[in-house]
Amino acid sequence: MGNSIIFTAMKWLPSFILSLISLAVFSQERENRFSTFEAHYFYGTILEHNPDIGHLITHHPEGFILQYNLKTFGINEWERRHNYPDWGFTFAYQDMKNPALGELYGLYSHISWYFLKRNLRLSVSQGVAYATNPYHPDDNYLNNAFGSSFMSATILKLNYHRENIWNGFGLQAGISLFHYSNGNFTTPNTSTNTFAFNAGLNYSLYQEPLPEYLPFEREKYSESIQFNVLLRFGINESDVIGMGKFPFIVVSAFADKRFTRSSSVYAGTELFLSYFLKELIEYRAIAYPEDEITGDEDFKRVGIFAGYQFRINKLAPFVNAGYYIYYPYDFEGKMYNRLGLKRYFGEKEQIFGMMSVKSHAAKAEAVEFGVGVRF
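Below the sequence we write its predicted structure tokens.
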């Protein structure tokens, strides 16, 4: 569990912290003063994305969100390209209203985009959450959603947002989605998704007019096709509780085409060496002879995949879908998908690190960490 929070925090939080430091270094002194603080109350329901968590959905969860935002005005080119987003930090508390699930405390970094003359705001927060009552075989066997105390956590918020309506105070209201999962680092890991309505107040921590936004000049931008080699790795478990953690390695080769500064598409192939699957095959061959599994089935898999990547300065959220073309043992179906984040390094951005969650539909298989080369 200790490694889980360390790895997750090292990937997500420093990237956003470095982005905030960059703002502080390259922005004008006057610009650094413009920040806001906001508080939300939310009330919602746990979505039954998997029938296995039906017994945990008993009441409506509620909680609050505290958020600190640092404004941008276009000092850096990427700020102008993305309509002057806010960066910041988020703290969230959620009472799941079920004694088996307990309560959740989360610390996040976030980015917010504005639309409709800056009255509509979409926020994405990513961080680490602490669950007060995770699964325990004796004390809490009903909690098959959270197998560990520390988990990766995501919040999506779409809000009507107005600032400085009266004496620095404004308001916001809208909808939110909270996702908690450890990516099968520890079993069980059915995870939860909470859909909620939220409303609250914001306060502008400044007393002077906002500076003007630097204008954005559109430009045509395109790159030739680039090739990538990526090594992913990590530790995960099968769904059989107590079987233990095993390492995995994924070797990927793919080509990408960046057709704007913000967007690119890619496609490639990859080899999966998942040693939990080798153990699972041997276990099922012995425990379930009626399934006609010999135990000699190959645990390796080969897939092809394609996806989309969105660039925010040196950060790049991405999503892809894949299909196994070599699939000797049936595990969760031939289709798979990923959602993750890359961080590029260096002036030429040829080296990148990444973290992603690999899933089969809504069922997570692993949290993947990786390092790659683009050339």
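The chain has two domains: 2-204, 226-374.
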